[in-house]
Amino acid sequence: MQQQVSLKPYNTFGIDANCSRFVRVEEVSQVFDLIGQGVFQNDFLILGGGSNMLLLDDYTGTVVKNNILGFEIVSESDTDVVLEIGAGMNWHETVIRCVNQGWWGIENLSLIPGNCGAAPMQNIGAYGVEIKDCLVDVRFVHLSSGSLEVLKNEDCHFGYRESIFKKELKNKVLITSIRIRLSKKPNRYLEYGAIKDQLEVMSASNPPTIKEISDAVIAIRQSKLPDPNELGNSGSFFKNPVIPNEQATKLKQRFPELRSYPAGEGKTKLAAGWLIEQAGWKGKRIGNTGCHKNQALVLVNYGGATGKEIWDHANRVIESVNEIFGIKLEPEVNIISNEA
After folding, report:
1. Residue 236 appears among annotated catalytic residues
2. Is 320 a catalytic residue?
3. Active site residue 259
4. Which segments of the chain belong to CATH 3.90.78.10?
5. Which of the residues 92, 213, 214, 315 has the least number of beta carbons within 10 Å of its own beta carbon?
6. Chain segment 94-143, per-residue pLDDT in tens
């Protein structure tokens, strides 16, 4: 257990904040040790890749860095493979490893930042694919009982960037590993025009290979999203709002170029980045923060910004979009504060 540790290296926004105590967990047995020490009876923060959080101030509790690794084939057939992956494994590196094996299912999720343990928490998704589409189950330690438990896909209450781990089980469990089922047979999802356009630019095969699809997604993301190592950010800061079809129809009458997508069950998903851009925030900088020039959905730290500065800017954007469109944006990023 370390005292007064800087969290700047552990969050992709590059916020210079400290925590009172810091401990790394590399084995499940260490989680049981921390339970015995009463660590989880006081304020604590379980930290993965640090790519989906905004620290508003110094953290007065204990930060538990989840570094549990592992990549194992649980079962395999002629058609598919089931993998168990440690929560501390880097997500993108895991995707590339699977792509190189020719295992289909997560290639559209290439270059999403963070670790594998956060994937089911956020129900990460991109270009028409979500982790719930291939997830078998999630394995975790319940921090009050100390029991090792397994939650199957259908019990995770997955929604758009939502899961039981962000609601009923929030701060109650530490995810140790996930199991996913991938296909050995091509299972392409190319419904998003951006992927088709990029594959054309790349002169990809017809039909494209799994690596070509992954490379296309990487190229698209790199063209829009700044590298956190060069410019602090947490990827998409806001969720794409999902609204009733009736409300979407009225908005389209007022804004014919509104970007929207079917979201099932009488719902329509709006492109938050488009809303923010139309409100005039794309590329706009205020002090040390602002919205990125290539993707309005990405809030950035130009250097030296505090978490509060970035959060203040986020609220300016929220207020502006709500005033124009009557849509209140919600952060996709977890806001970490001692007052929360």
Report:
1. yes
2. no
3. no
4. 232-336
5. 315
6. 999 999 999 999 999 999 999 999 999 999 999 989 999 999 999 999 99
